[in-house]
Write a structure and sequence with these properties.
The protein is mainly alpha-helical and 262 residues long. The chain has eleven helices and three strands, in the order αααββααααβαααα. It folds into two domains: 6-225, no CATH class; 233-261.
């Protein structure tokens, strides 16, 4: 009996958390709505069961929709929504660094084993590589968006490295590879979640210690999204709404009528 993918189990748990409204703040920082996040998770889960064959290659090769295509599309979307060029650079450098570190660790752990980067790991790659990838991605990416991009694309790049390695080793024609599928799917999902959790927990801690997010040089729209609404601002906003209602002609006439009635 095959093991049910841990990545799908985690995604289902995350879906429940989002549905209950417990991840709104993190999603808001990533420029995702609750509904949008649930749609993406659903696409990843359903796509994990579908792989598209790639023709004209030396051996049987396919690309998994949920483990490769959807994460790439999401990463591109998050890059477009990035607040600054520095975030772009951190995200892309983080992806390269994450891929390099995970690949090197996989090669060291599996020294003497046929394949590098965790295909037959002594330590289960499902737990080791997402943790390493998530930590590296957060350290370099820093923001929630950049950390997620670095983690998911970094681990996906490792799968591509593995494919290139197989080409150099002239793997047999009957050899089958699914880019973003098999164990790589679990690793990509978990690495992205670990990176976002680290960014959320550590980032929130530093923000509280420093008195709020750094706003210097950031666009006004981004700053408003990073800051939490103050109570006084909400009270002022409510007063403005009430004042604007009182200033309407109909409401003024009703007010005068009430005064005459008294």
């Amino acid at each position: 009996m095959e093991r049910f993918p841990i990545g799908i189990i985690v995604l289902i748990i995350v879906s429940v958390i989002i549905y209950l409204g417990l991840a709104h703040r993190a999603l808001d920082r990533m420029r995702l709505s609750d509904r949008g996040a649930l749609i993406v998770i659903g696409a990843i889960i359903l796509g994990s069961f579908v792989s598209i064959p790639l023709p004209f290659l030396p051996f049987t090769t396919s690309i998994n929709i949920g483990g490769a295509l959807v994460p790439v599309v999401l990463a591109v979307y998050l890059l477009v929504k990035a607040g600054s060029n520095k975030e772009w650079i951190r995200a892309l450098l983080g992806a390269v660094a994450t891929a390099g570190v995970v690949y090197i660790i996989g090669s060291v752990v599996n020294r003497g084993v046929m394949e590098p980067a965790g295909r037959y790991a002594v330590i289960d790659a499902v737990y080791l590589y997402p943790l390493v990838g998530g930590v590296v991605a957060y350290i370099i990416g820093r923001s929630r968006r950049a950390a997620f991009i670095a983690a998911t694309l970094g681990v996906l790049m490792v799968d591509i490295f593995h494919y290139i390695w197989l080409l150099n080793q002239r793997a047999p024609a009957n050899y089958a590879v699914s880019i973003g599928g098999a164990g790589a799917f679990d690793t990509i999902v978990l690495a992205g979640i670990v990176a976002v959790l680290l960014a959320e927990i550590v980032g929130e801690l530093f923000e509280r210690l420093s008195g709020g997010p750094n706003v210097e040089g950031r666009p006004g729209k981004l700053v408003r999204g990073l800051k939490k609404p103050e109570i006084n601002e909400q009270i002022t906003s409510d007063k403005d709404i009430n004042l604007s209602l009182d200033e309407q002609p109909e409401n003024k006439d009703r007010g005068k009528a009430a005064e005459q009635h008294e």
